[in-house]
Write a structure and sequence with these properties.
351 residues, Fungal_lipase-type, 42% helix, globular, GDSL esterase/lipase At4g10955-like, 13 helices, eight-stranded mixed sheet, hydrolase, AB_hydrolase_fold
Length: 351
């Protein structure tokens, strides 16, 4: 049987991480990404009928770090494995690792992205379209995912020991389940690798003045439409004596999902400009415009419906500054545990 190199942990996994320091960002990122890769490989194991300890390639992606896959999340439409719940079963900690262990998760719920194989491609593309139309929350896959998250959070009693992780389409699922959970006051750690940002790829424009000008114009238009919509809603509420709805961004401002993006990946690179633009608007004295605009998507308002997944009040944004040879490498998950990568991390908080 032909084995794809990317599925083989011994060839492409983070083999040097034999001891995990949970206070180390590189270790945390690498483990979270590896667990997501384990879900990709679990689905390919299923499709290629790699069953049993001698054939299945997915277990080592979690067991190497002392995680056990206790439940596979299966799509009800095509029976594909789209996610999984991992439980951390560490060896007896030594005295110098006890503090590190306090930062470890008890459970990680991981979601894969699109798998371009015959058994799953049509359903995955259907889900990709739902992401584009801001309709992922209406799918049965989301229902399965959010129920799994709620059950684990309820069993643990808090969100701090529960991690969510996903790549690409799976990153959208991790962010949506994370947002939904955070709105209840429980803030799970979230690791979103190459999360889709549905917007024109302004970040790819080289001239900074042109790029900034386009962003300012977009913010003014978006904020104007948002305020007009809000005024209409306020008028209707006043006539019906309805209370004003809570600010959805304010309720999420203390949740800091970790977003991992690559400038060479046009599907997620717009996150870089999305957060940087806020700071620039504050610097030139029109931050109030951006505080309105950042909560809304122009396409989302024109289409109507649910708030887009990609709009985030706060985040810990990590950018891979290492040059990628092509889009496939820039969008791939293997970069996130690479030893020779140059990362830059910034924290953004919505006020």
């Amino acid at each position: 049987m032909m084995i794809c190199e990317r599925d083989d942990f011994s060839l492409t996994g983070p083999l040097l991480l034999t001891s995990i320091d949970w206070a180390n960002e590189h270790h945390r990122r690498s483990v979270a990404a590896s667990l997501v890769q384990g879900i990709y490989v679990a689905e390919r194991d299923r499709q290629l009928q790699r069953i049993g300890p001698d054939l299945a390639l997915s277990p080592i992606w979690s067991e190497f770090f002392h995680f056990r896959l206790i439940r596979k999340l299966v799509d009800d439409a095509d029976n594909s494995i789209f996610g999984g719940i991992y439980e951390y079963k560490p060896p007896q900690p030594s005295s110098h690792t006890v503090k590190s262990m306090e930062m470890s998760p008890r459970f990680v719920i991981a979601f894969r992205g699109t798998v371009t194989k015959a058994d799953s491609i049509s359903r995955d593309i259907e889900l990709d379209i739902h992401v584009i139309r801001n309709g992922l929350h209406t799918t049965t896959r989301f229902e399965i995912a959010i129920q799994a998250v709620r059950n684990i959070v309820a069993s643990v009693g808090s969100g701090s020991n529960v991690w969510l992780a996903g790549h690409s389409l799976g990153a959208s699922m991790a962010l949506l389940t994370g947002k939904t959970t955070a709105r209840t006051g429980v803030f799970p750690e979230c690791f979103a690798f190459n999360p889709p940002f549905l917007s024109a790829p302004i970040e790819r424009i080289k001239d900074k003045r042109i790029k900034h000008g386009i962003r300012i114009a977009g913010s003014v238009i978006t904020a104007g439409l948002a305020l007009a919509k809000k005024a209409t809603q306020q008028y209707n509420q006043n006539h019906r004596a309805l209370p004003a709805p809570p600010d959805p961004f304010a309720t999420l401002s203390d949740w800091f999902p970790r977003l991992y993006v690559n400038p060479g990946d046009h599907l997620c690179s717009e996150y870089i400009g999305y957060f940087e633009h806020r700071n620039k608007m504050e610097e030139i004295g029109i931050g109030f415009v951006e505080r309105v605009a950042t909560q809304h998507s122009l396409g989302g308002m024109l289409l109507g419906g649910q708030e887009p997944i990609h709009l985030m009040p706060s985040s810990v944004l990590t950018v891979n500054l290492t040059s990628s040879r092509d889009f496939k490498q820039a969008h791939g998950i293997h970069q996130w545990w690479g030893e020779n990568q140059k990362f830059e991390t910034k924290v953004y908080q919505y006020n």
